[in-house]
Structure formats: structure tokens, C-alpha cells
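Q: I'm building a small set of examples for a reading group on sequence design. Run inverse folding on the following structure and report the sequence directly after it, with nothing in between.
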């Protein structure tokens, strides 16, 4: 295997390679751009016209996506997986990965779309660097641009795997985008209704990419569940420039949209849900969701509401959970 295939291992060890460009026997070029960032270019005659960005480790404690991206890179460097797309791979928050935590200072996935300018600190610098390298990668005209930012929701979920579609300011999704999600074993998609400063919002809105945050299945008793295997095969196929169909007799593909964001406003914020509540658990109207200081209460008002990403330990001003409802945004 070409040594640049060890991108993750080298980056975590802080070992910058002396040789920054390597070429496989089939003419695929691997180019180390920075710690945790590798650009992979197929021979021009094999390029199918897609520019694909795969990122993981934007949150350092989400192990499965990091491991999965590492496997894909190694397969390319061994010559087992033959790319026909231009590919940029990124491990986002290296120090957080080393320490096994979501973030060190600020949450990196709140610092894109220029939000790093106001923030300061190591994560802000990294967001700026990732934006710069992404902008350069996605600057070629006439290409199909895709970005999957790989995460894993750190709690049980009624949907094993799902996508989040950033708000796109009214621009429609590319043809086949949802079909590609289904083929990658996503059980559904959550449509954002407002601008955000996540990595996928950045590539969707500033570079017109077909971009999603993907929440992969958690590590379970079954170390690598079937849905993750399907996902890995789907990514291999996209890298190889093959179109793939969702497997036969697909489960229903669920569409949700965000009804409300629960924002933590003070240190007195308290979520009133069980610690082990599952993502997409049903919420009964009238239920108290959260309290924050003097008489500030979040009560379920929506019919068929569900909770997503409940997390009280976030910085003040940040999202501590989402109330979502079935269907496209109104
Ligand atoms: O498990 C959790 O609570 C959060 C999982 C996670 O990191 N989700 C992303 C979603 C990003 C988006 O809205 O596109 C995040 O919170 O950054
Ligand atoms: Zn995450």
C-alpha cells in the first residue's frame, strides 16, 4: 500500500510525510494537502466528471465514520478500489479525534460559512483551512459536486441511519440525490428550514454541491451492522463512478423537517427527557421538553413531533435539541 494511504495514522501521530505526492500503478494520484487532508485524482481518461468530498471526524468522538473513511482511503492506496471521481478526503478535528471528544474549544460543525471569523481558537483556524481547501477543490467549472459529511448520532435511533439536508435557500436538490441516499442505506432525510453554519451547509450554499450530513449507525453488539456494510459499498460505488440502485424491497424512506430548534440560553438550562431517549422518539403534545431560567419552558405543541439530538451539554446559544415533524417543510 502507498504510505499516503495511512493518512489518518500519520496525521494523528503528527508525522507529515516527506513525499507528499504518490501515484498508484494504475495512475491514481494521491496528494497530501495538509494534516488529515488528501486529494485523490484519477487519470484524466477515467474521470467521470464528479468531484466528491468525503469528510469525517468533524466531531472527534464519532468513531465509526472515521474508521470507515480510513478504510476507503486505504483501499484506494492498495489499488483495491479504483476511483473514477476526483476525491477530497478530510479528517476534520484531529486533536478531538486524538482525545476522543466531540470538540476541544468550539464545536467545529458550527464554524463554517464564515462563522470562524468571529470565533477564534484552534477549531476556528481549522474551519478556515478546511473551507480554503474545499473552495479550491470545488472550483472547477462544469463538474458535478457532491459532499457527504459523515457523523454518527451518539445515541440509539428509531431510524438507524439518516441524512440531514441543509437549508438550500430554495434551490432544488440534484436529480437522484435522494435515490443515492436510499442506495446508501439511509432510512430518511431531515430537511433544515433555516440557514446554519455546518460543513454541509457551506458546501451546499457556497459551492452548489449536493451536500448532506450523514448520521451513520452506531457501533453495536453487531460490530459492523448490515446497514453500515451497505453504506460502505455505496461509497465504494460512488468513488468508482458507478451508479447504484437502492436494494430491492426498500423500507419506507422517511422525510422529516425541523419544526423548532431548542436553544440553550443559560447555565440553568435543563432537558426534561430521559437520558436514554432515542432519536426520533415520539413526543406527546403538552409534554415539557426543557426549562431554562425563570419560567422559560419548552413545551411540545406540534402534532406527530419527535425529538432529535437532545444534548444539554452544549455552549450557551447553541442547539440543545431539535423538534422535528414528518413531511417536507411547509
Ligand atoms: O448526536 C448528536 O447529538 C449530534 C450528532 C451530530 O453531530 N449531528 C450534526 C448534525 C449537523 C447538521 O445539522 O447538519 C451536528 O450536530 O453537528
Ligand atoms: Zn457529529
Amino acid at each position: 500500500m502507498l504510505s499516503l494511504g495511512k493518512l489518518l495514522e500519520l496525521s494523528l501521530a503528527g508525522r507529515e510525510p516527506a513525499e507528499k505526492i504518490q501515484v498508484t500503478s494504475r495512475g491514481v494520484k494521491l496528494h497530501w494537502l495538509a494534516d488529515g487532508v488528501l486529494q485523490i485524482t484519477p487519470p484524466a481518461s477515467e474521470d467521470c466528471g464528479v468531484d466528491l468530498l468525503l469528510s469525517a471526524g468533524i466531531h472527534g468522538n464519532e468513531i465509526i465514520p472515521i474508521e470507515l473513511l480510513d478504510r476507503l482511503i486505504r483501499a484506494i492506496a492498495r489499488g483495491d478500489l479504483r476511483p473514477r471521481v476526483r476525491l477530497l478526503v478530510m479528517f476534520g478535528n484531529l486533536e478531538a479525534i486524538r482525545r476522543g471528544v466531540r470538540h476541544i474549544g468550539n464545536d467545529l460543525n458550527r464554524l463554517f460559512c464564515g462563522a470562524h471569523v468571529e470565533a477564534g481558537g484552534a477549531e476556528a483556524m481549522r474551519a478556515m483551512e478546511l473551507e480554503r481547501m474545499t473552495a479550491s477543490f470545488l472550483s472547477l467549472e462544469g463538474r458535478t459536486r457532491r459532499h457527504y459529511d459523515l457523523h454518527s448520532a451518539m445515541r440509539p435511533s428509531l431510524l438507524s441511519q439518516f441524512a440531514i439536508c441543509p437549508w438550500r435557500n430554495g434551490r432544488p436538490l440534484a436529480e437522484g440525490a435522494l435515490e443515492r441516499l436510499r442506495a446508501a442505506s439511509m432510512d430518511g432525510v431531515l430537511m433544515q428550514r433555516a440557514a446554519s453554519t455546518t460543513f454541509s451547509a457551506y458546501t451546499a450554499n457556497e459551492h452548489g454541491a449536493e451536500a448532506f450530513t450523514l448520521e451513520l449507525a452506531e457501533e453495536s453488539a453487531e460490530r459492523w451492522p448490515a446497514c453500515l456494510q451497505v453504506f460502505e459499498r455505496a461509497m465504494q460505488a460512488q468513488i468508482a463512478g458507478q451508479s447504484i440502485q437502492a436494494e430491492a424491497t426498500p423500507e419506507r424512506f422517511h422525510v422529516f423537517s425541523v419544526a423548532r430548534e431548542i436553544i440553550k440560553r443559560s447555565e440553568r438550562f435543563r432537558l426534561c427527557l430521559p437520558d436514554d431517549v432515542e432519536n426520533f422518539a415520539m413526543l406527546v403534545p403538552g409534554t415539557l421538553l426543557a426549562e431554562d431560567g425563570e419560567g422559560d419552558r419548552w413545551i411540545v405543541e406540534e402534532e406527530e413531533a419527535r425529538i432529535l439530538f437532545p444534548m444539554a451539554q452544549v455552549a450557551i446559544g447553541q442547539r440543545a435539541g431539535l423538534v422535528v415533524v414528518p413531511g417536507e417543510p411547509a
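The helical segments are 7-12, 63-78, 94-99, 116-119, 122-137, 177-183, 199-207, 226-239.
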